[in-house]
């Protein structure tokens, strides 16, 4: 894949939003040596939660995947804010995906694919990552999904 991250974003019809400011007493990202850790990103679109509720209780897997994709877009916005430009990303090392889930819902891994597939599309081989997908009873602001990321900086 020889195109740039910016060109792949444009091809996907995605314009990164301004990185969201922290909603409480934390920072949006931390850089330590050649590592960049983002705080959990919610499925925000135009500053509002795009997908709210619980998977298995009114929110479909497809809606959850869309929420995960919004989270991934917001992760890239944070990475851009931290690094100045996305070409500094060496590799996406790990995603931790939190899925607000009904007690009987067990397809968190399928929801997480909404972020994983998007990030591999945009980052290419640099986007192949380790991942955890965890069901939780609730997330901030009733978000359906929250995702944090760990990057290696080139």
Automatic annotation (TrEMBL):
Record-annotated Endoribonuclease L-PSP/chorismate mutase-like domain positions: 7-144
Listed Pfam families: YjgF_endoribonc (PF14588)
InterPro entries: Endoribo_LPSP/chorism_mut-like, RutC-like_sf
Listed PANTHER family: ENDORIBONUCLEASE L-PSP_CHORISMATE MUTASE-LIKE DOMAIN-CONTAINING PROTEIN, ENDORIBONUCLEASE-RELATED
Name this polypeptide is given: Endoribonuclease
Lineage start: Bacteria, Pseudomonadati, Pseudomonadota, Alphaproteobacteria, Hyphomicrobiales
């Amino acid at each position: 894949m020889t195109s740039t991250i910016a060109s792949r974003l444009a091809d996907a019809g995605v314009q990164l939003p301004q990185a969201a400011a922290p909603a409480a007493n934390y920072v949006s990202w931390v850089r330590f040596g050649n590592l960049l850790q983002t705080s959990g990103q919610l499925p925000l679109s135009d500053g509002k939660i795009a997908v709210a509720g619980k998977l298995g209780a009114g929110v479909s897997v497809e809606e959850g995947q869309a929420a995960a994709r919004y989270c991934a877009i917001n992760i890239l916005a944070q990475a851009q804010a931290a690094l100045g430009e996305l070409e500094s990303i060496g590799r996406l090392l790990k995603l931790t995906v939190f899925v607000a889930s009904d007690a009987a819902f067990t397809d968190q891994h399928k929801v997480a694919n909404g972020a994983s597939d998007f990030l591999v599309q945009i980052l290419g081989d640099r986007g192949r990552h380790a991942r955890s997908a965890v069901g939780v009873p609730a997330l901030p602001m009733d978000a359906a999904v929250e995702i944090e990321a760990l990057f290696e900086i080139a």
